[in-house]
Structure formats: C-alpha cells, structure tokens
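Input sequence (325 aa), recorded before submission:
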Amino acid sequence: MLIFNNTTSSSTHFLLTAFPGLELVHVWISIPICCLYTIAFLGNSMILFVIVTDRGLHKPMYYFLSMLSAVDLCLTITTLPTVLGVLWFHSREISFKGCLIQMFFIHTFSFLESSVLVAMAFDRFMAICNPLKYATIVTDMLTMVIALVICIRQTLVMFPMFLVLKKLSFRGGHELSHPFCYHPDMIKYTSSNPWVTSVFGMFLQLYLTGTDLLFIFFSYIMILRTVLSTVAPKKQQKALSTCACHFCAVTIFYMPMISLSLAHRFFSSTPRVLCSILANIYLLLPPVLNPITYSLKTKRIRRAMLKLFQPKCSQASSGREVSRR
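Predicted structure, token format:
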C-alpha cells in the first residue's frame, strides 16, 4: 500500500496541508523550504563527519553535539517526504498507518532532542561549575550511560503511547493542518473521546519537556552564578560564549514547540496559516540553525571543518607551483 498519493478523499486516509490558501504558489514556496532542508542535511552531516573523523573531538562535549546533529538529521528525514510530496506533487493523502508511523517518529525525535539538550546542559554545568572534577566525572563511559538512559526513557514513554494510538479508530477524509502528522492535530479526528488522548499527550509533553526545561533552567542559574563570581573577565567571556550556543539551541527548539502545542490545544481559533508556519519553524528551524550556531561559535568545530578543505587547497596550490616550474 502506498503511504500517500494524490487522490482527494478517502475514509481511511487523512489529507495533508502545507500552507492553506497558498496552493497556487506551492512551487515557489518549495524553493526556500528545499534550501532549508539542504542546509539542515549538509550542516548536520558535516558536524557528524567532523566529530567522527577528528580524534581531537572525541570528548563528551562533542559526543553530545554529535547526538544533537544525529537527532536533527533524523527529524529532517522524517518530515521531508510528505512536505515535498505536498509542495511538488500535491500528494496530500496519507494512510492512517503511515500517519501514525510518521507521528511516532516526529515526537520520538523531538523528545530525544529535548533529552540531548538536557545532557548538554549537564555537561556545561560540570565543565564550568566543577572544572577540577569534570574530567574524572564526565567520562566516555558516563556519556554512553547517559545516551543509553535517554534511549530507554524514550522507549518507555513513546512505545506505550504508540500502542494506545494504534488501537484508536479515526474518521477519514479530514484535512490536517500541516504537511506531516502531528499528534494534537491528528487526535481531533478520533472516533473515541479525543480529550482522553489529548490530555494524555499533553501530560507526556509536560512531563518530558517540563522536567527537561526545569533542569536546563536550574543548570543555567548555577552556571551564571559561577560565571559572575569569576573575577577574570576573559574567563567570564569564554564561559558565556560557550553557553551561548546551547542557549540558542534551547530557545529555537522549545519556543516553537510550546507555541504550536498551545495553539492546537487551547486556541482553536488560531489561523491555519499561522499554525503551519509555527509547525515548519518547530521542525525545520532547529536542524538548520544548530549546525550553523555551533560551527560559528565553537572554535574546535570550525577549525576541524576548515581542515577538510585545506588539503584540497594545498594540493591545488602545489600543483600550480609544479606547473609553473
């Protein structure tokens, strides 16, 4: 069975929507969308490749950054087929099963990114607040344990939710607000009481993202307290510059996520175009901006990326010298 095709109505399918009212300019809208997807794919792939190949970056801080890039890459690939299918080929229909699978991966990778941001906050907390104990506490083994705990946490939370949603029956032929399947949007068309699953989904989001945000907020309070008590201005500037990347990643991830969730659950009169824009910002902006932010702000990452192009440049220059001789 095809996951999506370009028919118009079915009792066993949902209809995806990209930008309501702008269907005639979908081809033009797809140009910047494709550029953003390309930047996200290349940027995160580059960071992963650099961290894997450069032995100098085999440290916990960069391991966590590689986890963030891997999650962003998976999140990008999850939404790419349906987004481009709607914008390029007007393939709006998606089966219940395909929609459920996509929704599962979207929320799994979203919550994974939230957990990775917590791990990165813990790493910065230990590096700045306990620099003497950092090397002995935050080891490669602890990094592996944290990664394992993150995966187990997501499995324990998301797999039961997937089983519950799989048993639900949905009313087909309805238009979703986005070019991908999002739980608060999809759950409105269940045949059973939508409030039960909606409240359950809200509880999971508050539990996961709420506890993650509290931990990140607490860690940054302790970091600012430590940094402001440091006398040397150079050390203050270095510590704040290190945390600036992570703070940007936290902001561009949580703000659209919370706004979109509130718009679907409590503000039903929100314009559909606004919801569509929020959804694209929520799922596309972090994968695009994270590699740019970290490559610009982190000197080690920037130097490692420049090394990839230096051999080619040196070979080209040596070749020119030989030809001149």
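Checked by second reader. The longest strand covers residues 13-15.
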